[in-house]
């Protein structure tokens, strides 16, 4: 279990999305939850997103995408192996997400892990997410610049860099230290010695992400699609002109399906609960019955939400929960629905509810049989 050594309210007031912060010994007595050979093992898997970033003999940046079958490059200096969404695949590493649950689930992106040899790093860049970079094994030198408009360029087809910047934070991270970098602040980090870094990233959608996903949703909902009509048409002297009222009416049609925030919930709930990276879903070969699940609870079982699975609900519509892109009606048992979204693990606190409410038990059994919650 990792415990965050941080005054959370002070952090949110002063630093969150505002300025970078070094949290010295943010995790006391930090023990790496994963070893370099396991990181390499993950990089061999087809479904797992991995990259090797290094500088070649001429000092030119290079990047290769996994899966990898050999790791000779990691015997050389100035190399980094990066693995995306490790929280989906490695339950011990996934524990590193939990201390950051003071931020809402829907903002969490993933846990990225990098292993770097001496001088390894990915170069100066700007991310479009907030990140907590935790130092595990080894030491790494980090520089963070101010949020100024910097030139960005492609250092390699898979590497976007930014121009040189002066540092507002220049630190050497040791095991257990955490560096918080808000979205948009340029940064670069180079390993002083072989080093593991854990990046807990928080991504927010931008306007284009929202609009393109909403448009896809509207295209799927053809039956509610409204067409422009103009029964009151008048003889026009200037046929080239679009009149003020016509523009207003067109604008009105565009806004029809998103006039109130509540109208957005069915789409947003699905969109925000969809996982960006693959999930490690192990569907049970033999389905559990409701009775078996209840027995497991009675025997003291704890059920854990699958790593990376997103479960959310809206304050305005607490009867629905959204899990992995699907909306579920939980009006008869919304306390269960909310606990599943708010807690990473559930256990004995659910026994009474599940014994008394058969539909709640059916729902939970369905989630276990879908591979979304599991017990060890
Ligand atoms: C890394 O761990 O090498 C990259 C992390 C980052 O800069 O976001
Ligand atoms: Co970065």
List keywords for this structure.
eight-stranded antiparallel sheet; Jelly Rolls; binds succinic acid; alpha+beta; 376 residues; binds cobalt (II) ion; 10 helices; three-stranded antiparallel sheet; Malonyl-Coenzyme A Acyl Carrier Protein, domain 2
Question: If you had to describe this structure to a student in words, what would you say it looks like?
Answer:
- The protein is of the alpha+beta class.
- The protein folds into 3 domains: 8-202, Jelly Rolls (Sandwich), CATH 2.60.120.650; 207-267, no CATH class; 290-374, 50S ribosomal protein L16 arginine hydroxylase, Chain A, Domain 2 (Malonyl-Coenzyme A Acyl Carrier Protein, domain 2, 3-Layer(aba) Sandwich), CATH 3.40.366.30.
- Helices cover 24% and strands 26% of the residues.
- The strands form 5 sheets. An 8-stranded antiparallel sheet has the order 1-11-6-13-5-4-2-3, with helices on one face. Strands 10-7-12 form a 3-stranded antiparallel sheet, with no helix packed on it.
- A hairpin with a 2-residue loop joins strand 15 (311-314) and strand 16 (317-323).
- The chain binds succinic acid (SIN) and cobalt (II) ion (CO).
């Amino acid at each position: 279990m990792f415990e965050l050594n941080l005054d959370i309210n002070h952090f949110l007031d002063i630093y969150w999305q505002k300025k970078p912060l070094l949290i010295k010994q943010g995790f006391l007595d930090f023990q790496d939850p994963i070893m370099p050979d396991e990181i390499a093992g993950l990089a061999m898997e087809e479904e797992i997103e991995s990259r090797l970033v290094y500088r070649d003999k001429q000092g030119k940046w290079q990047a290769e995408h996994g899966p990898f079958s050999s790791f000779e490059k990691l015997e050389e200096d100035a190399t980094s192996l990066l693995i995306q969404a490790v929280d989906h695949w490695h339950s011990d590493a996934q524990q590193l997400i939990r201390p950051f649950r003071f931020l809402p689930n829907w903002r969490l992106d993933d846990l990225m892990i990098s292993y770097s040899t001496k001088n390894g790093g990915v170069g100066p860049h700007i991310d479009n997410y907030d990140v907590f970079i935790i130092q595990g094994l080894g030491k790494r030198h980090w520089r963070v610049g101010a949020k100024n408009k910097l030139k960005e360029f492609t250092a390699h087809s898979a590497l976007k860099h930014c121009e040189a910047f002066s540092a507002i934070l220049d630190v050497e991270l040791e095991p257990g230290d955490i560096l918080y970098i808000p979205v948009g602040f340029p940064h670069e980090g180079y390993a002083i010695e072989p080093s593991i870094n854990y990046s807990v990233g928080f991504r927010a959608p931008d306007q284009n992400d929202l609009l393109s996903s909403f448009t896809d949703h509207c295209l799927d909902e053809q039956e509610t699609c409204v067409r422009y009509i103009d029964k009151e048409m008048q003889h026009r002297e200037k046929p080239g002109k679009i009149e003020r009222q016509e523009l207003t009416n067109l604008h009105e049609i565009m806004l029809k399906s998103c006039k109130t925030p509540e109208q957005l919930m069915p789409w947003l709930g699905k969109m925000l609960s969809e996982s960006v990276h693959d999930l490690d879903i192990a569907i049970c070969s033999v389905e559990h019955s409701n009775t078996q699940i209840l027995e497991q609870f009675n025997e003291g079982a704890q059920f854990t939400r699958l790593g990376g699975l997103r479960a959310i609900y809206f304050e305005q519509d607490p009867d629905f929960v959204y899990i992995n892109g699907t909306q579920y009606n939980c009006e008869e048992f919304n306390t269960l629905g909310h606990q599943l979204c708010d807690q990473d693990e559930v256990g004995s606190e659910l026994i009474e509810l599940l014994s008394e409410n058969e539909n709640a038990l059916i729902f939970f059994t369905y989630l276990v049989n879908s591979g979304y919650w599991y017990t060890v």
